[in-house]
Amino acid sequence: MQLSDRVTGGVLVVLGGLAAWSGSRLPAVPGQDVGPAAFPLLIGSGLVICGALIALGIGRSFEAPEEEVSATGSRLSGLRVLIPPALLLFYMLASEPLGFLLTGAIIVFAVAVALGARMRLAVPLAVVAPALVHLAFYKLLRVPLPDGVLPAPW
Amino acid sequence: MNEVIEAFRLVAAPDVIIAIVASAIYGLVVGSLPGLSATMATALLVPVTFWLSPIAAIATIITASAMAIFSGDIPGCLLRIPGTPASAAYTDEAYAMTRKGQPEVALGAGLWFSAIGGIVGTLSLVLMAPLLAEMALSFSTFEYFWLAFLGLMCATLVARSSPIKAIASMLLGLLIACIGMENPAGTPRFTFGLTDLLGGIEPIPALVGVFAVSEVMRAMATPEPPKMPDRKFGSILAGQWKLTKKYQWPMWRGNIVGVIIGVLPGAGADMAAWVSYAMSKKFSKEPEKFGTGHPEGLVEAGASNNASLASGWVPSLLFGIPGDTITAIAIGVLYMKGLNPGPTLFTENARSMYALYLIFIIANIIMIPLGIVMIRIASKVLRAPRASIMPVILLLCAVGAYATGNNLFSVLLVGVFGILGFVMERNGYPVAALVLGIVMGTMVEQNFITSLIKSDGDVMPFFERPVSAVLAAMTIGALLWPLGVWIWNRTGGRRLPA
């Protein structure tokens, strides 16, 4: 995920340009000079300027030297960082049909294993943690967590 | 006087007491775990505050954040991994003391001077807030615009990051805040046809994603931190009185700098700690000892970050402009509980304000005994494997996001902001500036557009009112500061100390 300043700066220029352009096309409020377009236009232009400065490497001298992150091997391990957001997507899709307890158990188990937990730790954790979270949020905080196929016994 | 007695009664309610104790323990534990910051501890508390009474809700936020800022010193001192960014400034120093065999002095200094800083910060809040409230009553949209803008500029003056990248992060946050129809014209913007985006992006999913999910992602990419050796500590508070007397002046300087940085909208505990540590080194009689396990910097910076935490509530309570990311969350909770920030809060709801002061004092006093217990059991807590903590954090992220609106779309947002936060941090873009942009975007725009409408598109009235002119000068100063330093470096050919 370490990108060069040229890439991130370029992305900001494009993003700012798009924001300013689509902002400027917003309908104005009749009879008024400043409407919903002004702010996106301003911010978009600011982003374009900042992005360009970053891409050109201005102001780089301020940054503290990056401490080297020890990369653990292959490209595959680079993809591991996407596990948590992927699991959140999974939660969004699965929590209603499967229910909170089952979805939670799968998420906890997956993260624990991905971080190198032994089965002796991962399995009990996947059983206990979702149950406790459910108890706290469903019973105490009255958050309507979905039951799905495995309703909680309380 | 009646108001004060009433405030005591409010704080003595059983639910408030339980909230204070429970959130103190929670804050101490979460703050001490490396990578889990005080902001994250506070963000994950928000769903819990839905269910509490207003005073109890505020008590949990205040107590948990104060404890987490202190206990961030613990892994910094023992493992050289700062528990929260606010301790990062003096982690090396504290660790050097541990290596010299004085971990109890370093941890005790963290605890003792954190508590003192917190109390001084609270007193400054008590003294300053009503005075400023008087003044704030006459503020118009011009002043509010400049205040909010000043807050955003201060948020970009983050240590160890390029100011241009910080400004870009802040603008990105403002752009995210444009999403939805919460703008002066009520026009849907950047919703891409999704009804879920019509209401805009709530700050809480963004905060949880940026501060918590990205941390779980980072854990995936980095090796497990070293295990802490079991360690017996000597008396923790024993040497502290001597240190207090010896470093009285640095302590006060730390307190005052912390208070000032806290009051500035947008600048918080992290910056207070960095600035104070640097100042301490600069003004010390023995600067050569810094970095070798010298307590002076710890005293000053440890007091400073906790002092800023309390005084950061001044702009939040008065103007609804967060002093840092923690108060950004607190403002959301205040609105939710019907304690809308604003100068009238101090006249119409004085007893809630007195109760808030009391909670600050209580939190900083119970920090000492609870902190000692925490230090003693730290080696046990820190030994919990990461593989058992991170899964629970991720689950709490999902449930917490869902609970803020009983809306599954927020869970997706948390994931998206997790990725954004992770990528930004890896590339040197400070995420705190992004978050403050998101939180303050609506307010900046509202006041900017209303002011422009009032002045018929003319910019001059932005500078004509006296307070407005001063705030404008400060904001422009903050904007030009990095440019000035950059030019100075270029022409003078030498680097200023950061």
Structure report:
The complex is a heterodimer of chains A (154) and B (498). Chain A has helices at 5-24, 38-55, 75-79, 83-98, 100-114, 119-140. With 154 residues, chain A is mainly α. Chain A folds into two domains: 5-62; 75-140, no CATH class. In chain A, α1 (5-24) runs antiparallel to α2 (38-55), α4 (83-98) runs antiparallel to α5 (100-114) and α5 (100-114) packs antiparallel against α6 (119-140). Chain A is flat and about 60 Å long. The model of chain A is unreliable at 67-73 (pLDDT under 50). Chain B is globular and about 65 Å long. Residues 494-498 of chain B have low confidence and may be disordered. The chains are: A mainly alpha (154), B mainly alpha (498).
> How big is the Rg of chain B?
22 Å
Would you report the number of β strands of chain B? 0
Biggest interface: A-B, 84 and 77 residues
Nearest-integer average pLDDT of chain B:
85
Tell me about the largest β-sheet of chain B. Answer: none
SSE succession of chain B: HHHHHHHHHHHHHHHHHHHHHHH
The chain-level mean pLDDT of chain A equals 83
Radius of gyration of chain A (Å): 24 Å
Head-to-tail CA distance between termini of chain A: 44 Å
Tell me about the biggest sheet of chain A? none
| Number of individual domains of chain A | 2
Strand content of chain A: under 5%
Q: Helix proportion of residues of chain B, in percent?
A: over 70%
| Proportion of residues in β-strands of chain B | under 5%
Oligomer: heterodimer
Helical percent range of chain A? 55-70%
Head-to-tail CA distance between termini of chain B? 47 Å
Q: Which class of secondary structure composition applies to the elements of chain B?
A: mainly alpha
Summarize the helices and strands and which ones pair or pack:
The complex is a heterodimer of chains A (about 150) and B (about 500).
Chain A: H1 5-24, H2 38-55, H3 75-79, H4 83-98, H5 100-114, H6 119-140
Chain B: H1 2-11, H2 14-32, H3 38-49, H4 54-71, H5 73-79, H6 91-99, H7 103-136, H8 141-156, H9 163-178, H10 203-221, H11 240-246, H12 248-263, H13 269-283, H14 295-311, H15 313-319, H16 325-336, H17 345-348, H18 350-381, H19 386-405, H20 408-426, H21 431-454, H22 461-464, H23 466-492
